[in-house]
Every structure is written in structure tokens, then in C-alpha cells.
Amino acid sequence: MTVLLMRLAGPLQSWGASSRFTRRETESMPTKSGVIGMIAAALGIGRGESLDRFKGLRFGARADQPGTLLRYYQTARNERGVMMPLSNRYYLQDAVFLVGLEGDDAGQLEDYRQALRSPYYPIFLGRRSCPPDGPIQTWISEESLEDALRHAPWRASEWYQHKALRNEAMFPERCFARIVVEPRAGEQVEDGFVDALADEPVSFDPRRREWRPRRIVRLSGDTKPEPTVGEPSAAPVSPTAVDATETGGSVFDDDAIFNAVADAEGAES
After folding, report:
1. Which of 60, 221, 233, 259 is 20 to 30 A (C-alpha) from 119?
2. From which domain of life does this come (predicted)?
3. Backbone φ and ψ of 174, nearest 5°
């Protein structure tokens, strides 16, 4: 089996699986239908076209940076100025996930990977108001879906990794990531609670959207992914003390800019 891994990150994400009408909720992790919809958009597949090419793919997700829940109270008027129904919409803010699709056709998964690098249609993290923070980072793994998610390095933002590692003694759970996968068809799961979600896309046609239920299970024992940042320092280091030529990048990468602002405020006081 081959697994296509994708890093999903952005200011806002919203992955609905059951919400309707004036309350639009989000799941705590990306949904299979949302990720397949994103890939379909990248491939240029129309909403009315068949989704048969995605049959048989197994989906899983890892919460590298869970984010926080945001409620947005939305008001709107139509083109005639008539007030539309008020709605509550929920989003995940500042979250980062690693998701995987497992299949037996490596060439097909590579096609999806290339499409995400140069998408035909704009892609979003669940809703149109949720663009990703840049091009979707992807990797190909020859491990099983479970092992690929367990063994992949930590994909959380650098500032989050630094903060979690610095405070690991007090909040060790922040250095661990929960994994939810779709069991194989017919597989009897003995370890873990199995739930069902109406999240297997059958049709994205606006006239007859359809989803089938699929099973999901949280793997026992959250994984501790390998950090992709250096060891945390006892105190933040001013970016002026770091030579960009030594680090191979800008001194304003990630949270360094926040340290620069803090240093400036301290000098003024």
C-alpha cells in the first residue's frame, strides 16, 4: 500500500460532517469528504462528475496542532436587501493537521500529489472562507496508513513546537498527537472505540449531494512525533543575534518577528 500525506494548515479551518441550516459546526479534525473535495478541485473535477476514482481509499488524520474553536455569528442580506437567516458558524483557528490517504495505486496518488502542487481550481480547508496558509505540503510513504501517521515528523508550526517543548515538563500532552483512522473494510477493531460518520462522499452535485457513513477509530496511545525544530532555549533569542546566513533563512522566520517586537518594546521602556 502507498500513502499520500498532506499537511493542512491555515488561519481558519472548518470540517463539517453533519451540520445544516443555521448552525454550521466543525469536526475537531479534517473529514474525508472535505479532503477528497479539495483533491477533486485540484484535479479540475466538476461537482457533477463521478467520484468513483476515489473509491477504496482509506483516510486518517493526526492532530499536530489542535487549534482552538471559534464561533462566528453571521448576518447577511440578499441582493434585494432582505435579511437572510442568522447563523452560527464554527471554525478551528491556528490548527495544523497531517492527513493521509492510503491506496493500492501509487501512480494515482502521485497524480493527486502533483495536482495539489498546481491546483486547477482554488482549494480550501473545508469552507471557501478557509484558504490554506500556502501550497499544500505533501509526501509519499510506503508504510501502512497507521504507521505513516505514527512515524511522520511533527508538522506543527515552529512557534507551537518551541512553546510545547519549552513547557513539556508542565504540559507534556502538548507534545503528543492523537490519530484517527478509517479501519479496513471488514476489519474487527478490538482496541479502541469505533464510531461512524456520514463522511464517505458519493456525489458533490449541488442538486443531490450524498454521503455514506464510514467507520472511524482513534488509535490507542497518542504518538509523540519527532520535532522539526531545534532544542528550546531557556529564553527567547533576539533575531538580531542570529545570522540569517547561518540558519539558511530569514531572521524573521515564524515567531522571530514576535521576539523582535518584544525586544523593541523593552528597549523603549
Report:
1. 60
2. Bacteria
3. -70, -15
43 versus 239: which is more confidently predicted? 43
Confidence check: pLDDT of 53 > 50: yes
Q: Between the CA of residue 150 and those of 64, 178, 184, 191, what are the distances in Å? A: 11, 9, 17, 16
Q: Which CATH number does the domain housing residue 132 bear? A: 3.30.70.2660
Nearest Cα to Cα of residue 101 among 6, 9, 195: 6
> What is residue 74's predicted lDDT score, i.e. its pLDDT?
82
Q: Is residue 241 in a domain?
A: no
pLDDT at 233: 63
Q: Give the torsion sign (CA, 97, 100, 205, 207).
A: negative
For residue 77, what are the domain limits?
A: 2-218
* b/e sequence 7-36, b meaning 16+ C-beta within 10 Å: bbbbbbbbbbeebeeeebbbbebbbbbbbb
Please answer whether residues 101 and 135 qualify as being in contact, where contact means their C-beta atoms are separated by less than 8 angstroms. Answer: no
Sign of the CA dihedral running 202, 205, 207, 209: positive
Q: Are 77 and 83 in contact (CB under 8 A)?
A: yes
| CA-to-CA dists, residue 258 to 15, 57, 64, 186, angstroms | 30, 41, 22, 50
Which residues face 166 on adjacent strands?
A: none
In a domain, 233, yes or no: no
Nearest-Å Rg of the Cα atoms of the chain is 21
User: Could you report the per-residue pLDDT of 73-103, keeping only the tens digit for each?
Assistant: 888 888 888 888 888 999 999 999 999 999 9
**pLDDT exceeds 80 at position 157:** yes
